[in-house]
Amino acid sequence: MDIQQLLLQAEDAYAASIEEISEFIFQHPELGMEEFESSNYLANCLASNGFTITKPYLGLETAFRAELQCGNGGCKVAFLPEYDALPGYGSNNDENAHACGHNWIAASTLGAALALAKIKDHFNGTIVVIGTPAEETIGGKCDLVEKGAFADIDAAIQMHLGAENNINIFTLAMDSIEFNFAGKAAHAAAYPQLGINALDAVQLMFAGVNALRQHMQSDARVAGIITKGGVACNIVPDQASCRFYIRAAKRSYLKELTEKIINCAKGAALMTGATLEYHNFENSYDDLIYHEGLRSLLRKHLEELGITNFVEEDAQASGSSDIGNVSQVCPCVYCEIDTGAAPKVYAHQADFLDYVHGENARFTLHTAAKAMALTALDVFLDPNIVK
In what side-by-side order are the strands of the sheet with 173-182? Predict the structure, then answer.
């Protein structure tokens, strides 16, 4: 029996445990940076299978790193579980839930790592599992990248559930900026001339951004909201704030676009006499760079496992993800696999919850675990793939 068949059998042997991981995380949904129970559960699962655990990791309480050395030397291949949930579900829209399927991501990545660990005597290398919190909010991978978590990683692998099979995911680089304008309060009827209207500054900034839209590259996306605009109609607003997500296909153009939008804010402050303060309220995300060798291997293994109907491009349905930051510093592959739902369901919809766990997720869960494990095995057996 060849080593690939041994690996597939190893995943089969762990099938019940992998499904148990998915169900536990699904039943214990926690928001970003609050995933204490989920991260402890995952770390303990790996520890009980021989992995050495570092937790907390690099200053993030719910991040962890698990390692298992196999043989002598070799590459380090990392799997990246996510385990934060989303708010706003349930009959009263007040419950957390895994409507993005991060329980599935946690289980599939651990499944790949555990299957490889079972055949550790057959290859040289280090299996690494880096628990990455808060993908839905601040982007924990961004902090981990900045702190050097991936400096020694030779390949990083992750998959996600989606509405189609796509190994050409197109993600946008993104800056998240809050603009705070300070003016001067005054009676809006009796002494309006004494006031400086901070809300006017916000509105003028929006006008400037909207005028800029016709001069943006077609891949740019700019979305903003007003978060503060005054407290009473008869008081000139002295405090007003807005937030913008600014996105583009490449970080190089995004830098230019972000500077132009900041200038819109500066111009609005100048026109009204308000003062301006701005800052990033979330981490900045980079665009995703694929390692072509890893992408080719992952697709090959998925096809061998029965996934054949890939879409070739989905550039019009693009968001942003902190996996992009990882791809900037080490070879990386990322893929979405179809839930199999008909009609289709999409991430963050309530109906998506029916396909991220249980019977409806069994095929996708084990297919993803096997495909990622086989891709990692290729790298362990032939480090030249990534070097």
Answer: 221-228, 239-248, 173-182, 275-280
Tens digits of residue pLDDT in 325-341:
999 999 999 999 999 99
Low-confidence residues in the chain, pLDDT < 70:
313-317
- Beta-carbon contacts of residue 94 (< 8 Å; ≥ 6 apart): 88
Query: How many residues are present in the chain?
Result: 387
Q: What is the dihedral of CA 70, 117, 133, 35, to 10 degrees?
A: -130
Helix/strand/coil (H/E/C) assignment for every residue in the chain: CCHHHHHHHHHHHCHHHHHHHHHHHHHCCCCCCCCHHHHHHHHHHHHCCCCEEECCECCECCCEEEEEEECCCCCEEEECCCCCCEEEECCCCCEEECCCCHHHHHHHHHHHHHHHHHCHHHCCEEEEEEECCCCCCCCHHHHHHHCCCCCCCCEEEEEEEECCEECCCCCCEEEEEEEEEECECCECCCCHHHCECHHHHHHHHHHHHHHHHHHCCCCCEEEEEEEECCCCCCECCCEEEEEEEEEECCHHHHHHHHHHHHHHHHHHHHHHCCEEEEEECCCCECCCCCCHHHHHHHHHHHHHCCCCCEECCCCCCCCCCCHHHHHCCCCEEEEEEECCCCCCCCCCCHHHHHHCCCHHHHHHHHHHHHHHHHHHHHHHHCHHHCC
Residue 21 confidence (pLDDT) = 98
pLDDT at 170: 85
Rounded Cα gap, residues 18 and 49, in angstroms = 13
Residue 9: per-residue pLDDT: 98
Give the angle subtended at the CA of 41 by the CAs of 87 and 149, to the nearest 5°. 85
Q: What is the pLDDT of residues 29-38, one digit of tens each?
A: 999 999 999 9
